[in-house]
Write a structure and sequence with these properties.
By secondary structure, the protein is of the alpha/beta class. It contains 8 helices and 7 strands. The two termini are 26 Å apart. The model has no long low-confidence stretch (mean pLDDT 97). The site of NADP nicotinamide-adenine-dinucleotide phosphate has 30 residues, from helix 1, strand 5 and helix 6.
């Protein structure tokens, strides 16, 4: 299957590192013009450089803005008024004792992880529908369906993204625009590597460290290793492509079998 996204413009939120950056590289490598996003100009400029190098494409630009705020979203929409492919990848996560998460923290998680995506879908979907082609992919998590007790506020945002994806797919029905979510499982990003090292010790070689981590702390994974960001990106690039024209309103799993369910 040859995926050719030339002539398409894609915005990937939260792509200065981690999964978002891998998605940006994947889309640029498939020929799309990719707009990289993060909160600061400096980090975005570094990421543009990194994505260009990794994808061997010059079709990479940046749009800085904190998408958890109206002003930040306006700044991004100012430089990028229309896209064919929108990937909402930005997200924050952290552990907290459920009874100690206050109103402000619940709201912060909702604004950063959910409202940021809704704002951009609202801004871009009408144009996609009018042009008769578009792709929206929201990055959810195993925590959307297997809510961790120490991350209820995070899990809530990812469950919300599944609902948001399904709902906007209905709004786009029959238009040539698809809206989907990807349920990502435990993935080998910088933050997760630090977390693994903290739990199993810094001295083990990486392969042994992650094996130990999976066996002890993530036994439900059928993959028994962390997922590489490129493996999430592969699914997103496929969903963003014309080949995925019959897949909409879905939640696609790239979770290494982590969620013990036949359906998401
Ligand atoms: N890692 C995992 O194991 C895992 C598993 C399942 C799902 N996920 C999901 O996958 C997505 C990416 O995760 P990750 O681990 O790759 O994240 P990460 O390494 O922590 O990167 C987060 C990205 O989001 C950006 N960001 C944060 N807040 C932002 C805001 N308000 N406006 C714009 N950009 C913002 C950061 O950019 P700046 O700091 O430069 O602003 C950064 O590029 C998240 O939605 C996460 O929930 C991750």
């Amino acid at each position: 299957m040859q995926i050719d996204l030339s002539g398409r413009t894609a915005l990937v939120t939260g792509s200065t590192q981690g999964i978002g950056q891998a998605i940006a590289v994947g889309l640029a490598g498939a020929g799309a013009h990719v707009v990289v996003n993060g909160r600061s100009q400096e980090r975005v400029a570094q990421a543009v450089h990194a994505v260009r190098a990794a994808s061997r494409s010059d079709e990479v630009t940046g749009a800085a803005g904190d998408l958890a705020t109206e002003e930040g979203a306006a700044a991004v929409l100012g430089t990028t008024p229309a896209v064919d492919i929108l990937v909402n990848s930005l997200g924050i996560f952290g552990a907290a004792s459920p009874l100690e998460i206050d109103d402000a923290e619940w709201l912060r998680y909702f604004e950063v992880n959910v409202l940021s995506a809704i704002r951009l879908i609202r801004a871009y979907l009408a144009g996609m529908k009018k042009r008769g082609w578009g792709r929206v992919v929201n990055i959810a998590s195993d925590s959307a369906v297997a809510i961790p007790a120490e991350m209820i506020h995070y899990g809530m945002t990812k469950t919300s993204l599944l609902a948001v994806s399904r709902g906007f797919a209905k709004d786009a029905a029959g238009s040539g625009v698809t809206v989907n979510s990807v349920i990502a499982g435990p993935t080998h990003t910088g933050g997760v590597e630090d977390f693994v090292r903290e739990l199993v010790g810094a001295e083990l070689p990486w392969d042994e460290a992650q094996h130990e981590f999976m066996v002890r702390h993530r036994p439900q994974s059928l993959l028994q290793r962390l997922i590489e960001p490129e493996e999430i990106a592969n699914m997103v690039v496929y969903l963003a492509s014309p080949h995925a024209s019959a897949t909409t309103g879905g939640a696609l799993r790239v979770d290494g079998g982590y969620v013990d369910s036949i359906l998401p």
